[in-house]
Specification:
By secondary structure, the protein is an alpha+beta fold. Helices cover 37% and strands 18% of the residues. It folds into two domains: 83 residues; 155 residues, Phosphoenolpyruvate Carboxykinase, domain 3 (Alpha-Beta Complex), CATH 3.90.228.10. Helix 1 packs across helix 10 and helix 8 packs antiparallel against helix 9.
Length: 309
């Protein structure tokens, strides 16, 4: 094994797919047609964006090495329908907050749900509809996994195509006051007006249950993550062992070791890659030629694991 190369490439997540988006064919390729994402009103997030880096790290931590994260996109709320959904969510959030006594009563969390590609347009334009992609074991509603457990919803989804394409929505979830829903329930609404949502467990929650009566007022799709995953996902993925650093963090750290003139060159290369003038592979090679592998390995060993926490 080339130890130096392995650790240097880990800074960049050893992937050239970061600057990609979803194409018409279901692949994520920076050179392919972006009309699919544009049609949905989605905006691609690139490395260095705070939301991108947080979602990327959470996915890597929760999914391990068995999945490849191809693209992270944000709902831009560009059209009338999506803006109306955003406004609706905000109105219901205010209502739930007032219902439970003001500040903090709304209790909004982020949650994951898996969707198929052909469902995406309908969800972003019109909202969620039945039948839903779950086994109904907790009643009629939309089931979401907490934001630190993407595997729990991904393992129950089918591959979108032979190459293992899958799609995860990261949604804002208006939980309000939750009640425990026993497995085997056939309910489709809260047991009383006191409650707004359901959970499988109040302490160690693995499922948020948003009833079918509430799923288009209490759930707001905000991010779409495009993933390649094997047919059989393991329930206990390997933790990400290699250190990972966002490129802006790497540049900031390098500035402590390199003269300003070299930092400016690296920043220019990074900007060129963000603007797709050069490929990710070219960026990596150019940075390595400036810094040398010895310095990069030193920085990764010293700072890489700290950045992940």
């Amino acid at each position: 094994m080339d130890y130096v190369r392995t650790h240097v490439e880990a800074v960049f997540d050893d992937s050239e797919q970061d600057g990609s988006t979803i194409s018409e064919s279901g692949s994520c390729d920076s050179s392919s047609d972006r009309s699919f994402a544009d049609e949905l009103g989605l905006m691609e997030l690139l490395e260095g964006d705070k939301a991108h880096d947080l979602i990327f790290r959470n996915c890597k931590s929760g999914l391990g090495d068995q999945c490849q994260i191809l693209s992270v996109l944000r709902n831009g709320f560009r059209n009338v329908g999506s803006r109306a959904k955003l406004k609706t969510f905000q109105v219901f959030q205010e209502a739930v907050q007032m219902k439970h006594g003001g500040h903090g009563g709304a209790k909004v969390k982020y949650g994951w749900c898996s969707v198929s590609k052909h469902e995406l347009k309908t969800i972003f334009e019109y909202g969620f509809s039945e039948p839903l992609r779950n086994d109904g074991s907790f009643g009629r509603g939309l089931y979401l996994s907490p934001d630190n457990s993407p595997l729990d919803c991904l393992k129950d989804s089918a591959s979108e195509s032979e190459d293992g394409m899958r799609f995860l929505l990261l949604c804002r979830v208006l939980l309000g006051k939750s009640e425990i829903v026993p497995q085997g329930s056939t309910r489709s609404c809260p047991s009383s007006p006191e409650f707004d949502s359901g959970v499988d467990d109040l302490v160690s929650t693995k499922k948020y249950i948003v009833w079918s009566t509430h799923m288009n007022t209490h759930v707001l799709p905000e991010f779409l993550v495009c993933i390649k995953a094997p047919f059989n996902l393991t329930r206990s993925p390997k933790r990400l062992r290699s250190p990972w650093m966002a490129f802006p963090v790497l540049i900031k750290t390098l500035s402590k070791f390199l003269p300003p003139s070299q930092i400016l060159v690296i920043q220019k290369h990074y900007k060129d890659q963000q603007n797709r003038r050069i490929t990710r592979s070219e960026l990596i090679q150019r940075v390595r030629s400036i810094t040398g592998d010895k310095l990069l390995v030193h920085i990764i060993k010293a700072c890489g694991h700290k950045v992940q926490h």
